UniProtKB/TrEMBL annotation:
This is Peptide methionine sulfoxide reductase MsrA. Its EC number is 1.8.4.11. Belongs to the MsrA Met sulfoxide reductase family. InterPro entries: Met_Sox_Rdtase_MsrA_dom, Met_Sox_Rdtase_MsrA_sf, Met_Sox_Rdtase_MsrB_dom, Mss4-like_sf, Thioredoxin-like_fold, Thioredoxin-like_sf. The active site is at C42. The lineage of its organism: Bacteria, Pseudomonadati, Pseudomonadota, Gammaproteobacteria, Chromatiales. It comes from Rheinheimera aquimaris. The gene is msrA.
């Protein structure tokens, strides 16, 4: 993946002028999605209710838990299968982000949306295909389902309902239903969507919620937000090691979990980590799921901070400041201090190594130790040595062998630097 290709690709996205989200397979990320399959009567209404829940990524109607019956609507609705214990159940496969909605909460909403005390029916929908069932993909899911069921039974009993008939078992295989069943209520707003809930609710969860995260500092100005994982995420660790640990720029970089975005306007899905969000006054300007290399990160940051400017063209198009440009005039006689990378904040050159070459560009006899890299530059029929910032990779200028007293002359563009006085 070449740098020029990256620049063209990412800038075409940013220049579109709207909030953008990209989920390219070339950028690895750790997915934190989970899924569970449930049956609660007619799958049309169940699918619709789950899809409306924050944290649910998708809900798919289908068939499961049958044996010897073809997993099709035509087969399971045949009269001979109406009371067949081996018939498939109408179920919904729910894909969800546990960082936004926990399995415990999802199953509480599941029990509340139907009458789990009815055996092989929901209201006038009668038959084994309408049975109440939870089909799990792990022992942890199975245990959570049993715990939620056990907590709901006393509430139902107190309200005068009978014993819960919901069967909890491992999922063997899920069969998606025919296309016309998917999003049926959305396609048919006047369609059949029965509500057989008992009206019995779990106690409010407000007492157990953690205090909202204070994100007030992110509501003003530009910020870089990285969605981190509450569990182990190899791509998060790689991003921290390759990018975040070396970043000291003046646009603050913050890590948050997907559950700690209170008060922010974030549109990019946060179920993959890392997810990088560029914020302006608390609102997403750009969002990207997946690991970003230093080159990719600084290219996006460059456009975010520098926009369509001479500094951006110098940094990423390997351009050159005009002689005696405004920034040069500001920087040529600064007090004692350090010149730093405009994007990464890394120290690059020291005023103690600065001299007036008379060329109209900042000149130094050496860089800060380990701060830059040198590359051959044979463009325009010349043989030169290009200087780039080691951390961000941006173009800084060139080095020549005509400095004072036989020393090198590092000819550096002022527009890609910031100045920090020595304390």
């Amino acid at each position: 993946m070449t740098r020029s290709w990256l620049k063209t690709f990412y800038l075409s996205l940013l220049l579109a002028g709207s909030t953008l989200s990209l989920q390219a397979e070339t950028m690895p990320a750790t997915s934190h999605l989970d899924s569970i399959v449930v049956g609660a009567g007619c799958f049309w209404g169940v699918e619709k209710r789950f899809e409306a829940m924050p944290g649910v990524i998708d809900a798919v109607s289908g068939y499961a838990d049958g044996n010897g019956v073809e997993p099709t609507y035509r087969a399971i609705t045949q009269y001979r299968n109406k009371h067949n214990p081996d018939n498939h159940a109408e179920v919904v496969k729910i894909s969800f982000n546990p960082a936004v909605i926990s399995l415990d909460m999802l199953l509480k909403r599941y029990f509340e949306m139907h009458d789990p005390t009815q055996l092989n029916r929901q209201g006038n929908d009668i038959g084994t295909q309408y049975r109440s069932t939870i089909l799990t993909n792990s022992q942890a899911q199975y245990d959570t389902a049993q715990q939620v069921l056990a907590a709901y039974q006393p509430l139902l009993t107190k309200a005068g309902f009978g014993k819960i008939t919901t069967v909890i078992k491992p999922l063997r295989q899920f069969f998606p239903a025919e296309n016309y069943h998917q999003d049926y209520i959305a396609k048919n707003p006047n369609g059949y969507c029965p509500d057989h809930s008992t009206g019995v609710r779990f106690a409010s969860d407000s007492a157990t919620k953690t205090a909202a995260t204070d994100n007030s500092v992110l509501l003003n100005g530009q910020h870089i937000l990285v969605i981190d994982s509450e569990n182990y995420c190899p791509y998060c660790e790689k991003f921290k090691a390759d990018v975040a640990s070396k970043y000291s720029g003046d646009i603050p970089l913050h890590f948050r979990y997907a559950s700690n975005l209170d008060g922010l306007t974030v549109k990019t899905p946060t179920w993959a980590t890392p997810t990088i969000i560029l914020l302006q006054d608390g609102k997403e300007v750009y969002g990207r799921q997946g690991y970003l290399s230093p080159d990719e990160f600084y290219l996006l940051l460059g456009k975010f901070k520098l926009g369509n400017s001479e500094a951006f063209n110098v940094a990423f198009d390997e351009g050159t400041d005009g002689r005696f440009c405004k920034q040069y005039e500001i920087f040529k006689n600064t007090p004692d201090g350090t010149f730093v990378d405009k994007l990464s904040g890394a120290a690059l050159f020291d005023t103690r190594d600065r001299f007036d070459s008379g060329t109209g560009w900042l000149s130094f006899t050496k860089p800060v130790d380990g701060a830059v890299i040198e590359k051959p530059d044979n463009r325009y029929g010349m043989r030169r040595t290009e200087i780039r910032a080691k951390v961000s990779g941006i173009h800084l200028g060139h080095v020549f062998n005509d400095g004072p007293n036989g020393k090198p002359r590092y000819c550096i563009n002022a527009t890609v630097l910031d100045f920090v006085p020595r304390s």
